[in-house]
Fold this sequence. Notes:
The complex is a heterodimer. Chain A is mainly alpha-helical. Chain A is about 65% helix and about 0% strand. Chain B has a domain of about 70 residues. In chain B, strand 1 and strand 2 form a beta hairpin. At the A-B interface, helix 1, helix 2, helix 4, helix 7 and helix 8 of A face helix 1 and helix 2 of B.
Amino acid sequence: MTPENAFDQHHQAVYSFAYRLTRRQDVAEDITQECFLSLIRAPQRFDAARGSMKVFLFSIARNLVLKQYRDDHPGEPLDGVEEQIATDPRGSLEISSAVATAVAGLPHLQQEALILFEYEGVTLDEIARITGADTGTVKSRLHRARTRLRRVLAEYRNTGSEHATI
Amino acid sequence: MQPSDNDELTDRELDSILPEWKAPLAPARLRAAVFPEVPGPWWRRLWTGSIRVPVPVACLLAVVLVLAAWRWFTPQTITTKTIYRDRIASFTADAGAAATQLRPVTELRPRIVRSADAQN
């Protein structure tokens, strides 16, 4: 697969992944650009036997996001404490903002597992390869993230289905 | 939409809410940033290209150009040296006046040296 083909197929997924983790479009753009420039500079680093191109690109993007996270939150652990979120955000937040805020309140490692699984359609095994963790750990992070979101987003119980039926 | 008495969503409810958070589309300029256009032939770059020159270098070049122009447009003096056998006469004059100060040689002493005689 040429870098151009890889870009055409995966740049939106890489960008979305970086955006959802950083919540900044400029940073997501920089990370996506750097991700594909890394592929162009050293295409031999991609080994199809170790995973798909998508996994390879998400691995690079994940490292760049982690670097950004450490720059923004020096000394803060990746699997840190969950942030407190307002119990009833309906008055001030749209449903999409509420979901974004709820995900942002998760520890970083739970966020990346949730975003890769729920939004980018990456399998648990692939997430394990991307994050360098074993599948059980990824499963546990995902479970904790979903448990937390089920509780935080309970106020929006009917909103999702209402939107879904439109 | 009424607040629910239940504390948690079900998995199904959560699955229906999560897609509400949409990521923006990647900007179109990303492709140009990753794959810049291939430059054209050298002669086209010669016409359309530009170079960056540091200010000190530009100032130095400007001074050199002004000095060169000043020297080019200023009338020059010519120093003519005529070498005689026993003395050196120097004339320093303007280019126009130099010709008038030249004098014919007062005493001409030609000496012919032949290579055959020189060997004897």
